[in-house]
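Thread: Newbie trying to understand structure tokens

Hi all, I'm a second-year student working on a class project, and my supervisor (Dr. K.) asked me to get a predicted structure for one chain before our next meeting. I've only ever worked with sequences, so writing a 3D structure as a token string is new to me. If someone could post the tokens and maybe explain what I'm looking at, I'd be very grateful. Here's the chain:
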Amino acid sequence: MTTKSPAQSNKSISDGFVVLQALASSDRPMGGRELARLLDMETTRINRLLKTLASMDILQQTAQRKYEPGPGMHVLAAQSLHASSLLRHSMDALETLTSTDLIVALGVLWRDQVAYLYHRTPGMSAGDALGRIGSRPATMTGVGMALLAAKTDEEIISLYTGRDIPGYPEGPEALIDQITTIRRQNYAYVEVHPDTLGKASDIHQTIATTLGTTTAALALSGWIPETSTVELMKLLRGCKEVIEGKMIHNLCAEHVPLPGSVANML
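---
Reply by user tm_fold:
Sure, no problem. This is what the structure looks like when written as tokens:
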């Protein structure tokens, strides 16, 4: 469920995160005016935010006076991955899915974008699969559609009100129809069109299922005829159960009270 905004939210913080997200997902440095147009914000405000973030080394300026992620952002990224147990508890289970000879992915949803923590094409090493691609519109991915289906219709409509929906030019009604199908079958099966994601050269399919204890989803992608979905979903659900089991075990271990004799020694 989406957390509601506080009655008096801090706009500088929220705008700062919007700017960071835009630069983090860009494949090149960007200037203040370009960012202002992209984000529909005042150039003066954008420049103030950029200078503040650069003064903290979260961003840095290039020789052309454009902005790109700085060392502070890389530190935050590393600390975030270390703090999250999701990847740590997922790696071994994800390895078992490589036998399918399909793309194996683990992604999370933020607003209307999916970020892939793990995206592994056949023959790729596990290390190369970590954080190798940027964000993607949620409605253009199986991971995103599976995670959107976990939201209410009202939350989805609010998310896209007054905006174009990638892949759904007909509007929110068409998206909700697809979401309803995903909820009914309890997994997403979507067609993905050619782009640089996974170096696909033609239309292919993705099946995805959410992880119940997190805001993440697992997916397999490639040539997946509908007749293959039953067997592949068995593999995905098996992987899901292993990951969720490890995370629940870890959570319980963190909250086990110490024996009295040990506690008295501390």
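A couple of things are worth pointing out once you decode it. Residues 132 and 227 are 31 Å apart (CA to CA). Confidence is low (pLDDT under 50) at residues 196-200, 258-266. Feel free to ask follow-ups in this thread.
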